[in-house]
Amino acid sequence: MSPSILISGGTLANGKKSDLLIKEGVIAEMGEKIEDKDAKRIDASNSIVLPGLVDLHTHLREPGREDAETVESGSRAGVKGGFTALSAMANTSPVADTAGVVEQVYRLGQAAGLLDVFPIGAVTRGLEGEHLAEIGAMADSMARVRVFSDDGHCVFDPLVMRRALEYVKKFDGVIAQHAQEPRLTQGSQMNEGIVSSQLGLKGWPAIAEEAIIARDVLLANHVQARLHICHLTTAGGVEIIRWAKARGISVTAEVTPHHLLLTDELARSYDPVFKVNPPLRTEADVMALREALADGTIDIVATDHAPHPAETKECEWQEASFGMLGLETALSIVNKTMVETGLMNWETVAQRMSYAPARIGRYENQGQELKVGAPAHITVINPTQVLRVDRDLVASRSRNTPFHGMELPGRILATIFNGTLVFEGGNA
Amino acid sequence: MRHLLSISDLSKTEALQILNTAEELARVSDGPMKKLPTLRGRTIVNLFAEDSTRTRISFEAAAKRLSADVINFSAKGSSVSKGESLKDTAQTLQAMGADAVIIRHSASGAAQRLADSQWMTGSVVNAGDGTHEHPSQALLDAFTIRKHLAHGGDDLTGLHVAIVGDVLHSRVARSNVLLLTKLGAQVTLVAPPTLLPVGVESWPVKVSYDFDSIIESVDAVMMLRIQLERMTELFFPNAREYSRYFGLNKDRLKLMKPSAIVMHPGPMNRGLEITADSADSARSVILEQVTNGVSVRMAILYLLLAGSQEIGASE
Amino acid sequence: MSLALPAPDMARAITRISHEILERNSGSDSITLLGIPTRGAHLAARIAANMEAIEGKPVQSGTLDITLHRDDLRMRPPRALMPTVIPSLGVEDRNVILVDDVLFSGRTIRAALDALGEIGRPKTVQLAVLVDRGHRQLPIKADYVGKNLPTSPTQIIKVQFTELDGLDAVSLEEGGK
Fold first, then answer.
1. One domain for residues B157 and B232
2. Of the candidates C77, C82, C84, which has its C-beta nearest B308's C-beta?
């Protein structure tokens, strides 16, 4: 049994000062100035004590691309970033389109034992966009899949998307769409705009994302199904989601930390560490996304953590793979772009990064408010400390972080999963 | 100047310095002194990952006239799966002691990746990277225009240049827009709407879909090569329509000012973007562009490699 | 700073050199003057003008830029090129008179000889300078000298021509460093 843990001197998301005593996997006691000589003490002065963060969009690469990441290394990166739950996307090799593969991923997560790994199941067989995958089998498996996504690919055929939306209703599932009209993005490399016109890189127009979102919210409404939009990146997409929610359509949306901070101007260096799908957009899009996250039009922050081996990033832009690391820097970036700017407070951060993602994914044991008796999944962050991002010191197996060399506000001091201290930050 | 990657890296002064140096080199190297010892002992590598005989030969001639040693490295294809990666190639060249690498590559930004990487220490000259830029082409184009039309002036103020054709995919167009406007010329792009990039509104140029409306007011017409593959990619219906609206034919040639010149970076699709009589007419300076290319490239190599690695020139 | 050669003395020296060249080469018919830019070119132009006045006929005169043949290019940022203008009869089988303002280490003249070698094969190459300040680093000697000025290596000789600097003068400055 893990030793008890006493988090003292910290402030909860709602602004109230409170100590927490964790025993046998749950929060045993809460209040001011708790004493326990036998417990491991975590000094949370100047720190915020949050419910454990839940990522609804993570690429763990195993099975198939263990050179980039494994469930275990991804878990270590996750707890370093304050996450107590990750959702493993299905674009592995083999694809997670059967009960067998999702159970394998689930077991790997259990074996690593650092946080909850919830496998996401594919929508279509082999991600080919033609035939439905074994959604029921995956839902009933040990992995209890509720989120289905072909992420990496768009479910572009409207009939296939309609059937998928209808079918998952039986399993209380949600289709998470990667919105990218393939015909408008063949060979595309970066956001289509002023910068791409100057750089001679093929453009990826915003409308390729927005057209699919518009179609799918109307479809979801028509068949009365839940829809989730992955990695929203454009102001236009925000407008569509807002319109849909105003009509009561059951759609949720996510934004990545990198889309809250970075723009397509970074492509001028031609450094493929900034190459990502969907691409970095303009300053105006970044501002619209921040506003939308603040007012709840965007429901959650999800990292889209996408590790890639060095040789696929140390080359010409055109040849490079799409994707950025995200787990270890996510909360610091949300702090920088949303809390420090006054757009959100920590209570809303808890909503966007813990309660809401758990709810969408139907992760019952996660995303619960911190109170006595609740499972002890906790993240402690000191927003006054500086996180110096160094790609050579990441826990991930890959090094493709676009934030290398940056100093971000806020360091994770501790991550507690099921009452066990799975990550301790140490001093700056 | 340590590298020449993009026209946007050059100030107007630096660009003029290249042109003026080229002028002197042209006079000297075509006349009294064919071979100069200036870069003796230097090793220049032509790294051409994309086919191009004329540019490569031009750079090779330039390097040899300055007595540099030239190594030709043809690396077809660039992805890891096809063979040696750009990184491995660069590190090999570094180990071979290359003082400069002249790189032509199908990936936009390849020259900058090479220059910014830690893989080699020599100078990098961009001989054309994907659809991004082709700085030495723009410099020789500006040199040619200045020679014919500037009437003793230093720069291109007051001149109107039209660039006609597939601007979207043209690195020659991008470099020329940057350089011609830097030197004070007014530039009009003429193309079908499908071949103009989104974002062109932010460029310091005028845009026209109608070649005939501007043909009488231009001092130089620069025709861009149109690739027939673009037809299958739905940029225009067929070759006939393209030529009709955007080709430089006899009728359009007649409308041009008496002093106006016809240019083309080559290779030409005779009959498509330019008719044979236009290409061979008295106004055509297309062959001269090729000759000027050697002098301009000599100037680039001289300014990058002859002196110490500080920015700017002395005296 | 001291005035080593005021304008009138400069003019007399240039006149004397002009006569000496004519004397040694039996007139101006076989002579091709090549001034080394910047100031050597102005000096060559003056000598040519003198000779034309004396002989009453045109003299072959031009410039020879030696920048591309220098042996010290890598020590400084790249230098601008100056014009090279070879007169109509060329250099082949001619008596070429190289003209420069100051003769110091001799490296400029060495470069000029290299450059000349690329152009053709003169009958003779002779050297005329306004000032010889000593401190040769190569076995080079001037045939015609305006003034011998012993200097220390750190001193600076400043030659000014009206066409370029507004006045004629040769001055000596302390170098410092």
1. yes
2. C77
Mean residue pLDDT of chain A comes to: 97
In a domain, B110, yes or no: yes
Backbone angles phi, psi at B261, to 5 degrees: -115, 160
B108 and B159 together in one domain:
no
pLDDT at A185: 98
Lowest-confidence range among A286-295, B140-149, B306-315, C61-70?
B306-315
Residue B126 and residue B159 in one domain: no
Domains of chain A as residue ranges with CATH: 5-49+374-424 (2.30.40.10), 52-361 (3.20.20.140)
Let me know if A43 is exposed, middle or buried by CB neighbors in 10 A (0-12, 13-18, 19+).
Answer: middle
Q: What angle do CA B12, B18, B23 make, to 5 degrees?
A: 125
Q: In whole angstroms, what is the distance from residue B38 CA to residue B307 CA? A: 10
Share of chain A above pLDDT 70, in %: 99
Q: Find out whether A225 and A216 touch, Cβ atoms under 8 Å.
A: no
Comparing C174 with A405, the larger pLDDT belongs to A405
Give the model confidence (pLDDT) of A115-168 as tens digits.
999 999 999 999 999 999 999 999 999 999 999 999 999 999 999 999 999 999
B280 and B300 together in one domain: no
Helices B12-30 and B171-182, packing angle to 10 deg: 100
Please judge whether B108 and A271 are an interchain contact, meaning their C-beta atoms are less than 8 angstroms apart. Answer: no
Same domain as B186, residue B102: no
Number of domains in chain B: 2
Residue-number span of the structural domain to which B75 is assigned: 7-132+292-305
Shared domain check, B206 and B153: yes
A304 is an active site residue: yes
Q: What is the DSSP letter of A278?
A: S
The answer, for A310 touching chain B at a CB cutoff of 8 Å, is: no
Residue B62, min C-alpha distance to chain C (Å): 14
Residue matched to tokens 């959650």: A300
Domains and CATH numbers, chain C: 7-73+80-151 (3.40.50.2020)
- For residue B79, pLDDT over 50 is answered with no
In chain C, residues 42-71 whose CB comes closer than 8 Å to chain B: 65, 68-69
Q: Are residues B143 and B121 in the same domain?
A: no
Question: Closest Cα to residue A230, out of A251, A250, A249?
Answer: A251
Give the pLDDT confidence score for residue B85 in this predicted structure: 80
Which residues touch B185 (CB under 8 Å, ≥6 apart)?
Answer: B145, B156, B157, B158, B159, B160, B161
pLDDT grade for B82, boundaries at 50, 70 and 90:
low
Residue B242 sits in a domain of what CATH number?
A: 3.40.50.1370
The answer, for C75 touching chain B at a CB cutoff of 8 Å, is yes
**Residues A79-101: what's their mean pLDDT?**
98
Q: Is residue B2 part of a domain?
A: no
Question: Is B315 contained in some domain?
Answer: no
Read off the pLDDT of residues A163-222 as tens digits, 9 standing for 90 and up. Answer: 999 999 999 999 999 999 999 999 999 999 999 999 999 999 999 999 999 999 999 999
User: Which pLDDT value is given to residue A202?
Assistant: 97
> In this structure, what are the phi and psi dihedrals at residue C34, rounded to the nearest 5 degrees?
-125, 110
Q: What is the mean pLDDT of residues C98-126?
A: 95
Tell me, yes or no, whether B107 and B209 share the same domain: no
